[in-house]
Amino acid sequence: MRFTTLLPSATLALGVLAGCARTPSTSGVASPTEPPALEAIREAEVRRDLFALASDSMRGRRAGTPDELRAAVWVAERAREAGLQPAGDDGTYFQFYPLRRITVATTSRVSVSGKPLALWKEAWVTAPINSRLDGPVVWLNTMADTVRRDLRGKIVAMSLLPPTPLPAPKMSLWSMRYALAAIGQQSAALRARGVAGIILTADAATEPSLEFVGHRYQDGQYLLPSMPVPPAPIPVLLVRQSVAAALRAPKARLQAELSLNDFQYPSINVVARVPGTDAERRQENVLFSGHHDHDGIGAPVAGDSIWNGADDNATVSVALLAIGRAWKQRPGARSALFVWHGAEERGLLGSRWFAEHPTVPKSSIVAVLNGDMMGRNAPDSAALLGSTAPHRNSQALVDMALKANQNITKFTLDNSWDDAKHPEGWYFRSDHLPYARAGIPSLFFTTLLHPDYHTPRDEASRIDVAKLTRMTRWMYATGWAVSATPQRVTQDPNFKLER
Q1: φ, ψ for residue 310 (rounded to 5)?
Q2: Omega within 30 of 0 (cis) for the link into 405
Q3: 252 and 274 housed in the same domain
Q4: 372: CB partners within 8 A, 6+ apart
Q5: Can you name one GO molecular function term for this protein (predicted)?
Q6: DSSP character string of 281-299
Q7: How far is Cα 445 from Cα 460, in angstroms, rounded to an integer?
Q8: Number of structural domains in the chain
Q9: Residue 454, domain member (yes or no)
């Protein structure tokens, strides 16, 4: 889809949503510890918005599609109704940016000994690449075979081997994690032997979920135009177990004509603002952050192909709307800036773009309060990532968040996910990260992963709305403290992430 494809509907949306009344200034000194509009964050309104944004009609809000645009327009319209001012480009609520997408072209062909393999049904190309292979297949029984033979320039095939270490049991997306780790480890070892092409046949752990796993490869790669393309030095194919017999046969031969598509289309951030009441500090912004996109239409699981993304991340999208309504009712001394990022699921692309091209002066952003997945797991548990070293970049900001939780929401906090050695690396997987890298004090509010993460089972009916409302109030109270405190929060000296 070309950039221009979405412009007519986008232009109409911009015209409808551009206007917004200004927030009247109020007088008086605000207390950092007494957020004045907690009761304006209402569970019934959070529930209403959640079930709308995470409904099947939004079709999973996939980045770069009309479904993401539809969700962005919905968010902007709700922000306008709440009285938030447009703070995107050209007096609108929107900030468009270009997505670069690289996919395996539909003209690609794969066959074994003259028999074609159906792409995305029997064979998956694990990375887009322009390549032509035509030659005999060398079957390897074990990795030990790689040291017994000269494999330089050969096309090799073997069964997929379990990765080391295995993903933790009962972890969400276990089969995906297993397959990605196994393919990565095995193909790296084979590439080191100088092979020209790799064919891996699914093992017993991967075969039942091949279409689920393979959807990731079919989806291709998403980048901003300035980002380097991940290298794909040689073709790596994943095939069904049923293909193994043909690959083992004497004189087995692979013929593959692989090509890629490289094109751009738009994604979108939604940006709104409530001006502050202090004559000087209103030029500074407390940025509330979330993402409105998810995974769209994907491989069916139990007959359901819509990946609704209720927890990830409709929960925070509607939380920001609730915070906006509270802030509009009682504005803080500093201004509140709300950014609903697009294309987070494609690699934090919306937040990367906004951090590089903010619609307000970057120096005016005092702190970033980001949320991702705030509505599941035990009712009284939560996590605050960026609260412990090496991820903490502002002790003052952390203290405000912990104080707000102590005084108001009283969650039991799980700090283990903030550990640099935690296997999930969860700190590096949400929209606060580009801001932290840019030197802006940043925190990440979450209630952590669950078995429905990135599956069609992540639906609004499974969200603990009461807990989500409490998490929303915690974010609001923290932001209020940042807004009301006379001194700006500052970044810790010598802050440096481990990667």
Answers
A1: -65, -50
A2: no
A3: no
A4: 290, 291, 312, 313, 316, 344, 429, 430, 431, 444, 445, 446
A5: metalloexopeptidase activity
A6: GGGSEEEEEEE--B-EEEE
A7: 19
A8: 2
A9: yes
Enumerate residues 6+ apart whose C-beta is below 8 A from 34. none
Quick one: tokens of 392?
């903490």
Residues 147 and 38 reside in one and the same domain:
no
Q: Give yes or no for a contact between 291 and 371, defined as CB atoms under 8 angstroms apart.
A: no
Q: Measured between alpha carbons, how far is 21 from 14 in angstroms, rounded to an integer? A: 16
Q: Which residues of 3-107 form beta strands (DSSP E)? A: 85-86, 94-104
pLDDT band at 26 (very low <50, low <70, confident <90, very high): very low
Contact 325, 39 (CB under 8 A): no
What CA–CA distance (Å, rounded) separates 132 from 93?
46
Q: What is the CA radius of gyration of the chain?
A: 25
Residues 123 and 36 placed together within one structural domain of the fold? no
Which residue stretches of 125-168 are H helix?
145-148
Residue 495 lies in a domain: no
Q: What is the mean pLDDT of residues 61-84?
A: 97
* CA 440 – CA 366 distance, rounded (Å): 7
Q: What is the C-alpha to C-alpha distance for residues 199 and 211, in angstroms, rounded to an integer?
A: 17
Place of tokens 């903490």: 392
Domain of residue 140: give its range: 106-258
In whole angstroms, what is the distance from residue 112 CA to residue 278 CA? 71
Both structure tokens of 267: 């994604």
Q: Rounded distance, CA 215 to CA 19, Å?
A: 41
pLDDT average, residue stretch 192-205 = 97
What are the tens digits of pLDDT across the range 392-427? 999 999 999 999 999 999 999 999 999 999 989 999
